[in-house]
Amino acid sequence: MSEEPKPAGLDDSKAIVTSLMQAREEARPVYITAGGSKRHIAGRDCDSDTLDVSLHRGIVDYQPQELVITARAGTPLTELIAALQEHNQMLPFEPPLFGGKATLGGTLACNLSGPARPFRGSIRDAVLGVQLINGKCELLNFGGKVMKNVAGYDVSRLQAGALGTLGVISEISLKLLPQPEKTLSLRYEMTAGDAIECMNRRAGEPKPLSGAFWLNGDLTLRLSGAASAVESTAAQWGGDILDAADNTWENLRDMTLPYFANDEPLWRFSVNPAATLSTATDSSLIDWGGAQRWLRGEYPLQELQQAAASAGGHVTLFRGGDRAAEVRSPLSGTEQHLQQQLKRAFDPDGILNPGRLYSWL
């Protein structure tokens, strides 16, 4: 029996508040979900009862002339992108679509951005404001819906990477960018070390670089912008030009490259882009101009944490492995205390995605 199609747009916030109130009265923790594409990635597993917000979807306000859009959290990213393309605009942070299942709220909660992140900013940078249902079942507004009104901006940004532990995201307002006039990709054969040096050097030049990653001995650079600037840069930088129909960047964005296909634990490093990691560089995928490194395989967590710290960053067990254990680098005592204070302020009864971020949160 086929599922009935979901409505294109629906404000389901009252039903969400009602469900959350009941869960709070029963002291019953909930796991917030919509598209379900991120349940077993980014954070620890959460086995609480499901709070499904997938019906709460649709574009609330779109002002192409202001380059701003507001949409409900359950809105699939594919719907947003289709609406933006009609006006030749785009989401600057190039989020993964995960087969069309990814939603706006889940993308913000997991703080996921694609290959353009170092050059156009993250989803956190694009957020102007959010509407949030906290653990007290209050519907709150933070920030604004236009770039001229961003009071409470920091609270809005707190939702990026909070994994739903601070509230049920209801609506999100985002800054947009125009689509580039032209996009072109260049490929070069080189070692991982040479690629890191090259990516950092190219990123320091005033050129229209919008993507840079290395895998299996190949460095791929993407240029996006005015046609004249893209063509001039390509002529200066050389390299093999990829066919316009090549879908490498889409596969990188959605993690559908063969590199991501097996069931090995997948580790995500966020480090200084010029740093040399002391572990398995040649079997890594290096993205974000060197700032994001992916590594597959079984490794002692402490070993990888030490390697990440020496490279000026941190490491997360992004997918696979033991998801009942901690999957993120430990916080200092001060950082842990601040996290717990935030949790108590937004969710005093601890019913929202308990343990999803850390076992103690």
In short:
With 361 residues, the protein is of the alpha+beta class.
CATH architecture of the largest domain: 2-Layer Sandwich
The total tally of domains equals 3
Task: Tell me the CATH topology of the largest domain.
Answer: Uridine Diphospho-n-acetylenolpyruvylglucosamine Reductase, domain 3
Output the number of helix runs: 11
CATH class category of the largest domain:
Alpha Beta
> From the alpha-carbon coordinates, what is the Rg to the nearest angstrom?
21 Å
Task: State the secondary-structure class.
Answer: alpha+beta
Describe the overall structure:
With 361 residues, the chain is an alpha+beta fold. The protein folds into three domains: 13-178, Uridine Diphospho-n-acetylenolpyruvylglucosamine Reductase, domain 3 (2-Layer Sandwich), CATH 3.30.465; 182-253, Alpha-Beta Plaits; 262-319. It has eleven helices and 17 strands. It has helices at residues 13-25, 77-85, 104-109, 117-120, 123-126, 153-158, 192-203, 227-237, 248-253, 301-310, 333-346, and strands at residues 30-33, 49-52, 59-63, 68-72, 89-90, 127-133, 139-143, 168-175, 177-178, 182-189, 209-215, 218-225, 240-241, 266-270, 285-287, 292-296, 314-319. Strands 3-4-8-6-7 form a five-stranded antiparallel β-sheet. It has a four-stranded antiparallel β-sheet with strand order 11-12-10-13. The radius of gyration is 21 Å and the shape is globular.
